[in-house]
């Protein structure tokens, strides 16, 4: 469970390119986290169909990409369900230029909001805290990519990333299942 984000992004980028899917890995992870945090049924891969609608117009994924996404789903659920596993958005490492990381964060947040909206019809009736973070995330999604590579901008990026992370955890605690059940996802049948 301790695969560094850079390796995961690299592998996901390669698989997306090989499948000719023009999405950034942050978009895929953001949508996946949005679905999970919105309360998508985690049993029998019920989450696959809405994710495929978001990332590939409902078309099945090649086996290797599908397996990678299943592993990402399982890892993400485990990290959200157990706080000590350290959930965080799948974003580029700090060695990447700040503008690249800010763009990835924006894409992650946009996809997270889309994912959660698809599976959570009662979003407008959520707790005041959740409605507030959704509103704030919508503003983060509009952040400018042209940022200075200085300490102040870096600190602001880190703050926004932490806000996105905590917002996802808050949404999961409100909409997620009482008990996550990944045992039904052990069988990774591709249709």
Relevant terms:
191 residues; 7 helices; mainly alpha; 60% helix; single chain
Explained architecture:
By secondary structure, the protein is mostly helical. The protein has seven helices and no strands. Helix 5 (98-119) runs parallel beside helix 7 (151-175). The longest helix is centred in the last third of the chain and has 25 residues, at 151-175. The radius of gyration is 16 Å and the shape is globular. The chain starts with a helix and ends in a 16-residue tail after the last helix. The model is unreliable at 180-191 (pLDDT under 50).
Count of strand segments? 0
- Categorize the overall geometry: globular
Strand content: under 5%
Residue-averaged pLDDT, rounded?
Answer: 86
Low-confidence stretches: 180-191
**Approximately how much helix is present in the residues?**
55-70%
Total DSSP helices: 7
> Nearest-angstrom radius of gyration?
16 Å
First-to-last CA distance: 27 Å
Task: Describe what is shown at a glance.
The chain is built from seven helices and no strands. It has 191 residues and is mainly α.
Explain the layout of strands and helices.
Layout: H1 5-18, H2 25-37, H3 48-56, H4 63-81, H5 98-119, H6 128-140, H7 151-175
Helix pairs in contact: 2-3, 2-4, 2-5, 2-7, 5-6, 5-7, 6-7
């Amino acid at each position: 469970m301790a695969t560094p984000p850079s390796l995961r992004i690299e592998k996901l980028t390669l698989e997306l390119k090989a499948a000719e899917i023009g999405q950034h890995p942050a978009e895929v992870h953001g949508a996946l986290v949005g679905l999970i945090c919105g309360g998508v049924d985690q049993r029998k891969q019920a989450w696959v169909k809405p994710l495929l609608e978001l990332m590939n117009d409902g078309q099945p994924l090649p086996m290797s990409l599908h397996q990678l996404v299943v592993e990402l789903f399982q890892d993400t659920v485990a990290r959200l369900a157990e706080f000590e596993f350290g959930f965080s958005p799948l974003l580029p490492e700090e060695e990447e230029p700040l503008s690249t990381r800010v763009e990835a964060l924006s894409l992650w947040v946009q996809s997270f909001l889309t994912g959660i909206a698809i599976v959570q019809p009662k979003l407008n009736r959520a707790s005041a805290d959740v409605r507030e973070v959704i509103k704030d995330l919508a503003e983060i999604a509009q952040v400018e990519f042209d940022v200075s590579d200085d300490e102040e901008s870096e600190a602001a990026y880190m703050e926004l990333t932490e806000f996105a992370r905590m917002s996802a955890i808050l949404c999961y605690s409100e909409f997620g299942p009482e008990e996550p059940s990944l045992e039904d996802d052990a069988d990774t049948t591709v249709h």
